[in-house]
Each structure stands twice: as C-alpha cells, then as structure tokens.
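Q: Convert this sequence to structure tokens.
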Amino acid sequence: MLISKVKNLLRNCPVCECKKGEVLHAQSFLLAESIFLPESYDVVSCVVCGFVFADTKAKQKDYDIYYQDSSKYESGITSLGSGVTEHDHKRLEDTAKTISNFFPNKSFSILDVGSANGGLLSEMKKLNYTSLSGLDPSPACVSYMSEIGIEGVLGGLFTDNNNLYKKFDGVLLTHVLEHIYDVRVAIANVLNFLKDDGILYLEVPDSSKYKDFFISPFYFFDIEHINHFDQDSLTNLFSLFGGNILDIGQKDMPISKYGFIPAVYIVFQKNKNKANQKIKQSLVSKDSILKHIKESTVSIYSPEVDDLVISKAPVIVWGAGQATQRSLQNTPLGDTNILFFVDNDKKKQGIFLKSKEVFPPDKIKENGRAIIIICSGLHGNEIKEQIKSMDLKNKVLLVT
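A:
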C-alpha cells in the first residue's frame, strides 16, 4: 500500500531522534500464535536525516524476548551464521577475509556480538586468529560454540555482561543492528566492549540497493529487520560517537544457493576524539525503497493462488517464515484450503499459523494429493530440489 504523509512517530528516528517521519508503506503480517510482536507497522523516512525504519510500537524488551524464545539462528540448516550451507560458508569466509584486513595481529582479542552458532568466528579461526569469543543470548548457540572450540558467552547488547571479564581489541557486529530498536544505546554498549583504540567491524543490509535486488514482494520488510541502513546513515550514526571511520563499503552477500542481498559495512576505531554530531540528510535509501515498494505492489498477486481459493483444493504451504506471514495477511493465500504448514526449521515446527500446525516436511507423504505451495523469498528453488529428492508426487506451486 503506497502512502505519502508525515506523521508523529511512535519511535523517534534511531539515528537523529527526530519525532516526525514520512510514511512510505504500511506493512502487515499474520504472525504465528506464539509471537507477541506488532502485526503491523509503518515504514517511514525521517524528515530530518532521511533514515528509513519501521515505526513499530514494540520496545527493545519485546524484541529481546522474541529473539530469546523464537530465534531461528540456532538452526544450522535454515539460519545464517552457522556456515553449514555452501552459501552461508562462502558469505562468512568472505566476511572473515575482509575483517582480516583491519585486524593484522592474529593474537588480537576479538568478540563477535550476536554470534549465533559461531560460523564467522570459525572462519576467523581458520585464518589463524587465536583469541576469539562469541556473545549470544541463545544458550543453544553458546553451547554449540563451546563444542567447536570457541569461547561462547551468554548475553547480548542489552544484558548485564559481567561475565565478559575483559575488553577486546576488536568487536564484530554483523547483521545485528538492523534488528535493534535502541540503536544509539546499542552502539554505545558495543563500543564499551572495546579497548581504547579498539576497532569495530559492523555490517548490515544495504537499503540503498534494495531496488537492484528484487527477491519477493516486500522482502525487506519483516518483523525482525526494523532498520534500513546505508553508507550515509551509518556515517551519520557514527558521527555521534567520536572516533575514526577507517573504511566504509558495499558488498553483495550470498544468502541462498540462488540469491544475494546487498550489504554495507563500516570499520570504526574507538578513541577519545570529540564527536562532531553533524547529521546530513540523505534520500538515497528512501528513493531505493520506494522503487522496491512499487515493484512489490505490482508483483504480489498470483492468479494460480486465486484459482485455488475458488476451487478449494487441499493445500500444504511449505514455509512458515516471513514470506508466508506477509502473504497470509496481504494476499489470497490465507483464503486457500490449507491443511497444514511445513518447515525445515525445528524452531517453527509445532507453532500455529491460522490455527494450522507447522510440521516437518515428512508429513507431506501422508497427503499425496494436496498441492504444495512453496512460499519463500530466497529458498524456493532449493525447496523444489528437496521435494524432488523426497520423491513426492504432489503438484508444486512456487509463490514468493
């Protein structure tokens, strides 16, 4: 839904704290019955600095609870951060090589904040770094890191981290800040993990290039990614903290066997320089996101799904993630005759969407006549390959 109006914000701009934003899009979801986050929010652009973000009524504590209870990042099969899949391994390998350019001393003490299963640290270990630690709120992730020989510490950006007994030469914060409600507090906290003159490597999706990476309708708007950074907004943000920006750049990140998403990184050295606090307006990401919204609006409906609504043919939806939660609320998918959902992610199995349970994929074998609707932004073709390997004879429809 394309909108253009200025509103008083529920959430001040995470970069400049302005209280007004222009509404670019109203996004809604049909969430799993176990998730207690808002089912809708406005995507807004700050009227002062141009930063684009979700104007959500949830607070940081609500997201903390969500990631503690519902984290998909524990799974080595379905999540980023484990390095188990070929594409995830390549992503982490490339990131580790980039980081090594800024951490020349292999004995540097390095902390990965939001480390998940320690995939990035494993790649750093292969590059002969010897003092590696991972901080994550998931006990399962911390346990897994310990099993693979990496120090895992239970905690996060907003917890009491007294168990971190030292400050570090380097801190990594990769694909975390886009999830954070209290952005400025998060950066202050992460810089506190660093020694004086320590170096932070931070990486997030690059919203200035969303227009060039159409994956599925409204792909970049979900309940988790609530901040849309680019080089300009990161520069604005770090201008508030003194220190030196050593480098800032863009990259394309493999995220599935068949797809990439754009990313931007910044390398920041902590020191006692006074912050200049000069915020400059940039509308690059706003323009990119408006183009993504326009293409999404045109692409969202599927005539095949409309036909299934009319025929009432039995349907199994493969996928219980963000793409499905958007589609159930915003397309006719929710009006089809859904028998149940399936998903490879064990954390999703057993939850309910539209009062229908999510099962492991093997459940499909009991329903050979049902039509499988694959609802996935990036993994649709991989799921088709899995269906073929399972020797299922069901008719398959891929929607995004």
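DSSP finds ten helices and 18 strands in the chain.
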